[in-house]
Amino acid sequence: MTTQTKTQVSKFQNKEFANASMAMCALIAAADGSIDASERAKTAAFIGSNDVLSVFQPAMLQERFEWYASKLESNFDFGKLEAIATIGKLKSKPDAGRAVINVGIIIGGADGDFDKNEQQAVREACNALGIPPAEFDL
Questions:
Q1: pLDDT in tens, 25-44
Q2: Do 83 and 90 touch, CB atoms closer than 8 A?
Q3: Burial class (CB in 10 A: 0-12, 13-18, 19+), 55
Q4: C-beta neighbour count of 95 within 10 angstroms
Q5: Burial letters for 6-20: b for 16+ Cβ neighbours within 10 Å, e otherwise?
Q6: Sign of the alpha-carbon torsion through 18, 20, 35, 121
């Protein structure tokens, strides 16, 4: 899935896709309702080193991830709404939306445990994109 996802991501090298991807990463990091410093650092390190996201400048991705993570930290419900809305902007671009979902699944499973909270976050992103979660076995 990683190679296929990287190929998809490389097709969508634009700010809108980068923002949606980082909103997804922040949602996964905060899926349990909060985001602690170690989880934030682990996700940030993963973003910077992940081959799938290597088509983007790491500093730009890091900045966007931190922005969404800060929103989620300061007010989880409003931060979540903003992140989901950012992802939903790709609704008219289903291939880009699917690539963002794949990024979320990869991030969620990076620690070897794609838990129920992370799966729920990805389901909500699917719904915002108008993509059936079942398409990703969720």
A1: 999 999 988 887 877 888 87
A2: no
A3: middle
A4: 10
A5: bebbeebeeeebbbb
A6: negative
* Rounded Cα gap, residues 115 and 111, in angstroms: 10
Q: How many helices (H) and strands (E) does the chain have?
A: 7, 0
Answer positive or negative: Cα dihedral of 8, 14, 20, 22.
Answer: positive
User: What would the two tokens of residue 124 be?
Assistant: 């909500």
Q: Residue 17 corresponds to which tokens in the numbers above?
A: 């896709």
Q: What percentage of the chain has pLDDT greater than the value 90?
A: 51
- Residue identified by tokens 């838990």 is 115
Say how far apart CA 10 and CA 138 lie, in whole Å: 25
Tokens 């985001």 correspond to 35
